[in-house]
Amino acid sequence: MEYIRVTGQNIENEHICCAISNNSDIQVLSKKTWLSDRFNDGLVFLKSAERGKCFIEYIPAENAWIPIKAQGYMYIDCLWVSGSFKGHGYSNDLLSECIRDSKEKGKKGLCILSSAKKKPFLSDPKYLEYKGFSVCDTADNGIQLWYLPFFADAVVPEFKDCAKHPHIDDKGYVLYYTSQCPFNAKYVPVVENTAKENGIQFKAIHITSKEQAQNAPTPVTTYSLFLDGVWLTNEQMNDKRFLKLISK
Known about the structure:
The protein is of the alpha+beta class and 248 residues long. It has two domains: 3-160, Gcn5-related N-acetyltransferase (GNAT) (Aminopeptidase), CATH 3.40.630.30; 163-247, Glutaredoxin (3-Layer(aba) Sandwich). The protein has seven helices and 13 strands. Strands 1-2-3-5-6-8-7 form a seven-stranded mixed sheet. A four-stranded mixed sheet has the order 11-10-12-13, covered by helices on one side. The protein has a two-stranded antiparallel sheet with strand order 4-9. Strand 5, helix 2 (90-104) and strand 6 form a beta-alpha-beta unit. The mean pLDDT is 93.
């Protein structure tokens, strides 16, 4: 498999989204803007030459859009391989390159979000364990921070208190999200409109800076839905999924 590193110089010509083929789609434009603004913070986006079938996205933990204490680590935003491409070692290729690059840059190790049982849009804990990662912290909502240290005495990463104990004071449905996930550009407005049409109390909070993200009341900043202060899910909603959720 041939891999391409996406940079500020070639991003306009590269396909970067996992399930969207149209480069003029608002979701693609949103993601490319978010990526372009992160390259100067050390973000790396490595993808297969195949259109969006596999990629890894990682960034120095100090610049990650997530509330963790992981000085000197590299944080993996996303490691994704399309269903038809699984089982060929592409995840191993991408992770190995991330490890090589991170060691070359003098990092202490890697960290990534997961959970005890596989959750949508989070890395598979079984795969992480197989690759030598282990849990270093767990939030009250079951979201876990996993790490792969490069040195035996490396400081163990942890969640900030705001992420370890996710809770907000607002009533109704409240969504925290970033533009890191391209689907949000399309589906957050869909859910907002669905809530309005059905008289449901709903508020979307768009996290637009590293500082906001690093102090967010949730370990998952790409998409976190609360109800009456309690964290519900990190799974992106369309109108049907949202209505099904509230019907429960």
